[in-house]
């Protein structure tokens, strides 16, 4: 059995990583900001720590931690975090995004690339779980679904959104089995579905009528910038969605190859989150 530190234990993926590791009989330690307020499975040790304060990781890593699941929540990159992990553990599984490798002298476009580069240089055995957009991001539609109409741009953008539990299952395999060192796993759902089709499926699974209303990109740009507060990120999303109207977001066989089963489909994700939409 492996002793694993889970960084991001309360996240949408991390909580499933914790649960699966615990069910598998592994010793699990969770890095959390406030142990008193964390809800974790029985037997999981909660240790206070914060990625923004690298030295706070030392107690969590001490005492025989062999593997680390690392989720980075968009904070400024702290090289000392990776250095601390490398001093104590043998293996790290990093929840990344679908990004190209970064050359040694190349500036990062997104922070995931910078963290991956630090990990590659660390001497650790590593696996990158590069997840396509989470199906969970569609919970942003919940208020609109309750109103019966989803207003969003690019209704014909075809997406291969992935269930967070599939991401977690791939990460757990990499944490607890040999044979995943140096792997860059791009994890997707089983098929590409258009935005408008995703809205229709949500309605069908909830048993309610949900209508699609196309939102002009200019209007979406204004609304999403106000909501998300990051004009550059909004612009990158709009460009990506527009491109998916011409070429669907890619679908990989990673889940089946690593886990020996097909990925969960979008309908199963909606059923798992029906209460969130209601």
Task: Provide the fold topology.
Blueprint: E1 3-7, H1 14-23, E2 27-32, E3 45-48, H2 58-61, E4 67-71, H3 79-88, E5 91-97, H4 111-120, E6 125-131, H5 142-147, E7 149-152, E8 158-159, H6 164-176, E9 183-187, E10 193-194, H7 195-206, E11 211-214, H8 217-228, H9 231-246, H10 254-259, H11 266-272, H12 274-277
Parallel strand pairs: 1-2, 1-4, 2-3, 4-5, 5-6, 6-9, 7-11
Antiparallel strand pairs: 8-10
- Tell me, rounded to a whole number, the average pLDDT: 94
- What portion of residues belong to β-strands? 15-25%
Q: Quickly count the helices.
A: 12
Query: Compute the gyration radius: what is it?
Result: 19 Å
Tell me the span between the first and last alpha carbons: 40 Å
Structure overview:
By secondary structure, this protein is α/β, with parallel strands linked by helices. Helices cover 40% and strands 18% of the residues. It contains twelve helices and eleven strands. It has helices at 14-23, 58-61, 79-88, 111-120, 142-147, 164-176, 195-206, 217-228, 231-246, 254-259, 266-272, 274-277, and strands at 3-7, 27-32, 45-48, 67-71, 91-97, 125-131, 149-152, 158-159, 183-187, 193-194, 211-214. The strands form three sheets. The protein has a seven-stranded parallel sheet with strand order 3-2-1-4-5-6-9, sandwiched between helices. Strands 7-11 form a two-stranded parallel sheet. Helix 3 links the parallel strand 4 (67-71) and strand 5 (91-97). Helix 7 (195-206) packs across helix 11 and helix 8 packs antiparallel against helix 9. The protein starts with a strand and ends with a helix.
